[in-house]
Each structure stands twice: as C-alpha cells, then as structure tokens.
Automatic annotation (TrEMBL):
GO terms for molecular function: acetyl-CoA C-acetyltransferase activity. Keywords: Acyltransferase, Transferase. It is an enzyme of class 2 (transferase). Residues 364-484 form the Thiolase C-terminal domain. Residues 105-354 form the Thiolase N-terminal domain. CDD domains: thiolase (cd00751). Pathway: Metabolic intermediate biosynthesis; (R)-mevalonate biosynthesis; (R)-mevalonate from acetyl-CoA: step 1/3. It comes from the Eukaryota. This is acetyl-CoA C-acetyltransferase. One of its GO terms (biological process) is fatty acid beta-oxidation. Its EC number is 2.3.1.9. The lineage of its organism: Eukaryota, Fungi, Fungi incertae sedis, Mucoromycota, Glomeromycotina. Belongs to the thiolase-like superfamily. Thiolase family. GO terms for cellular component: mitochondrion.
C-alpha cells in the first residue's frame, strides 16, 4: 500500500522488500507522515513473521499527539479484509482530548421556569459559564459544535448564535448538529475528532433545546389551502417525537421494546420512581452544584427576578398517582407519561482541549475522552441501540471491558430504554444513572447527549470512580456512546 519510493527526512527510501530492516529504522517518520485523519488508518500489510518477531510489542511516541503503533485484526477494527491478514495500524489516541469543567443549565419543565428563555439564550448561558469555569478566554476558542433538534423559528445556524451570544469572536466557526436525541453527544464527538485531526486545540461542544418555545407549523399556509380546514402541526411531535419511518410516536417503539423484552408496567414504574428518588437525593446532597449554573429569570409584571438552581421536574414525584396513570400510547400498554422522560428545556456545554494546549496554558483538566462509538439498526429498534454503541466505544478506547467501567449514564428517553440496555449488556443497576436520569429531570432533545456526559463526570468525581460510559439512543434507530476517564 506504500509506494515503492518515498521521501523520508529528505531522503528517498527504497521499499522493495518488506523484510528490510530499514522498515523499522524509518518507522517513526513513517508514522508521522501517515498520521490518520480520524481514528485509525491502514498503514501497510506486513507479513506475520515480522509482525510477531520484530514489531510486536512496538510502541513509539513520535510526538505530543501520543501516536501509538498497534496490531489490530481486521475484525476488531471493522476494516474490510477477506483474507484475515493482520494489519499494522496507527491509532491517534483520543486520550489527549480533555474536558475542562463542563456545565449546564438547570432543566426547566415544559412551559416551566425557563419558558421565557430561548434555546439560543440557554445555550449561550451554558457556553459562557463553561468557559468561565475552565478559565479559557473566548478568543482562544477555535470552533463550536452545538446540538439542536427543534430549530424552527430560531433563525439561521443556532450554534453560531449560541457562540456569539456567549461572547465568542465573529471569526470562530460554529456548526449546528442534529442527530435527534444524540445531537449533544455527537457534537462532543465531532469536537474531539476536530482536535485529533489537528484542526483545532480548543473546541466548545454541547447542545441546547427549548421544547417550550417550539412553534406549530401551518404546512399549507404558504400558497393557501384550496378547500377545507387547515391543520396546525406541532413542531415537537413532527420533528422530535415521531418515527417518520413507521409514522408513529416514539412511545409506540418503547411499547414494542417492553413487550419484546418482557418488562411490565410495574417494572417501568419502579424504575421511574427510583430515577426520581436518585435525582432528589443527588440534588439534596449537592452533587449537581458544580455541574449546574444558576439562571436568573426575569419576574415580569413587577415581580422579582427568580434564580433557578434546580431542575423543575424532580419535585413532581407522586408515587400513588404514577402507578395509576393511564398508558400514554396504547390502551393496554405499559408506557406512561411519568415513566417516560418529560418535555423540557435546557443546555449543556463542554470545553475540549488538546493535551498539548492544556499544558501550554497551564489549565487543569478533569477528564479525558478515551473513546467513542456509534451504531444503528432498524428505526423501530432505536431503544436498544445503546447496547450496540457502547461496546464499540469500549473497543475504540482500547478494548476496555464492561467490568472495568465504574458508572454508566444511559439516557432515559423512557424507563424501558434503561431497563432494556441494562438487560442486554448485563449491567449492575446500581452503576446506572446513580444521580437520576431523564425520566426524573427531563429530556431537552438537543441537550441531553451532552448533559449526560456532564453528569457522568460529576458521578465519577463524587463516587470515586475512574472510568465511565455515557450512551444515548436517537430517533431513526441510532445511538452514540463515549468513554470518559477521570484525570488523576
């Protein structure tokens, strides 16, 4: 796969014989020349004898990017290979993408405490707070990726508006990410990839949503309706909560998941109650104090301003009512409003920085992104896609085993989502969403993927953990996951 001649350090090297010792002599320079654009690239095929006798276990660190040489079988890295020939691959370790003090807003209930604030304003508040906590100047930011799903009526490129609203200079590019519920996490992954490829040293990533302020649509209004009534279309339902492939609400897929995996109404209600109780305990013990930035909301009509420091929804637990509420999506179903995540508003932001830049600036990093993975299956099966994405993330992080993970954050789009993925992965329920989840706190679609990363870092810090995984399913059948390792 290499050309027969290649200039290395200004000198042409003849590469005719793969057994030539010069391969080893020039390997560090070859690695630098063939730095991968993303996670890994095929560098060359090499015979097994050299692989086993000479190169393995060869580790070379040619630069601050912490490049390492690994042997990977094609099946382990999803590289097409019909002959089963081992590869020498170089992997640009994601361990040098660091997090500095992520934070988010409180989560407001639907038409709740944050109803007067747009998704743009919420996002700007989160970004400004994250940069301030990280002690990073706004003019040091080189790129912004921000998730947002319900963008109608927000104006062009919400991420750009969020960035400028947080005081980031006009010269900094910003990209809005829409991967439905995984948007905020995908924004973080894109930020990490941008740093790995050398296109930036400091990136702000996250997500924002104000479901409260999502408008209704009038589809035929532009050119008029020829005859009959016109219908208002709820933007939340249309662009956030409907599976377009099966033309049904996402809750129907949750019902199908509960049936397939044999989770009863009682199972889901019990899980929801536990999520509320865990969230209430976490707030009472101050576990969210470092993660959440207080928001001052105008009182209006002569009323005093109000400072919001806690999620709206967690105080709404009524166990007796929760157990008797009618099913939300099917007359004889098991999925209800209180054992599903409520509509809500909020934002979360994370400052990502390369190890080299962190060292240069002398900033304290608190966690590192050790790997990520994404997966997809049939749209109706989105509920269990985290069980596919999480193993990919663990493999990408260096074949970490599930048993090595201290804590998990799996987004609770529905109680059954957490239950099903817990079952499929064989996880300990005491390691999942220990500070509560979206069922108790809310699920602002574009925000949640980033929010659970923030919460995972808080959990690792407060519970003396070292390594955690965050996973989130998304409409269309997909899921994203990241592996987070706490700094020493």
């Amino acid at each position: 796969y290499l050309p027969s001649k290649k200039k290395i350090a200004g000198h042409p090297i003849q590469i005719d014989n793969i057994d030539n010792p010069k391969y080893i002599e020039v390997l560090p320079q070859l690695i630098q020349m063939f730095t991968p654009l993303l996670d890994y690239v095929e560098l060359w095929r090499i015979n097994v004898k050299i692989l086993e006798d000479i190169i393995e276990p060869l580790e070379i660190v040619p630069n601050d990017a912490m490049m390492q040489v690994y042997r990977h079988q094609a099946k382990n890295k999803s590289i097409p290979d019909t002959r089963g020939i081992p590869y020498i691959c170089i992997e640009d370790s994601v361990e040098y993408v660091w997090n500095i003090d992520p934070c988010g807003t409180p989560l407001g209930g639907f038409n709740g405490s944050l109803a007067s604030l747009s998704a743009i304003k919420l996002g700007s508040i989160a970004v400004e707070a994250a940069l301030k906590k990280a002690k990073i100047e706004t003019n040091s930011v080189q790129e912004v990726f921000f998730g947002n799903v319900l963008s109608a009526n927000l104006g062009q490129n919400p991420a750009r508006q969020v960035a400028l609203g947080a005081g980031i200079p006009d010269t900094v590019i910003a990209t809005t990410v829409n991967k439905v519920c995984a948007s905020g996490m995908k924004a973080v992954i894109l930020g990490a990839q941008t740093i790995i490829t050398g296109n930036a040293d400091i990136v702000v990533a996250g997500g924002t949503e104000s479901m409260t302020n999502t408008p209704y649509y009038v589809p035929q209004a532009r050119f008029g309706s020829k005859y009959g009534d016109q219908t208002l279309v709820d933007g939340i339902v249309k662009d956030g909560l409907t599976d377009v492939y099966n033309n049904y609400l996402m809750g129907i897929a949750a019902e199908e998941c509960a049936t397939e995996h044999k989770f009863t109404r009682e199972d889901q209600d019990n899980y929801a109650i536990s999520s509320y109780q865990r969230a209430q305990a976490a707030f009472a013990n101050g576990h969210y104090a470092d993660e959440i930035v207080p928001i001052t909301v105008p009182g209006g009509r002569g009323k005093p301003n109000k400072v919001i420091t806690q999620d709206d929804e967690i105080s709404n637990l009524n166990v007796d009512k929760l157990r008797v509420v009618r099913p939300a999506f099917s007359e004889k179903g098991t999925v209800t409003a209180p054992n599903s995540s409520p509509l809500s508003d909020g934002a979360a932001a994370i400052v990502l920085i390369s190890g080299e830049k962190a060292k240069e600036l002398g900033v304290k990093t608190i966690a590192k992104i050790s790997g990520w993975g994404e997966a997809a299956q049939a749209p109706a099966n989105f509920t269990t896609s985290p069980a596919l994405a999480i193993p990919k993330a663990l493999a990408h992080a260096g074949n970490i085993q599930l048993s090595q993970i201290d804590y998990f954050e799996i987004n609770e789009a529905f109680s059954v989502v957490a239950l099903a993925n817990l079952k499929l992965l064989g996880l300990d329920k005491d390691k999942i969403n220990v500070f509560g989840g979206a069922v108790a706190m809310g699920h602002p679609l574009g925000c949640s993927g980033a929010r659970i990363i923030c919460t995972l870092i808080s959990v690792l810090q407060k519970k003396n953990g070292k390594v955690g995984v965050a996973g989130v399913c998304n409409g269309g059948g997909g899921a994203s996951a990241v592996v987070i390792s706490l700094c020493d």
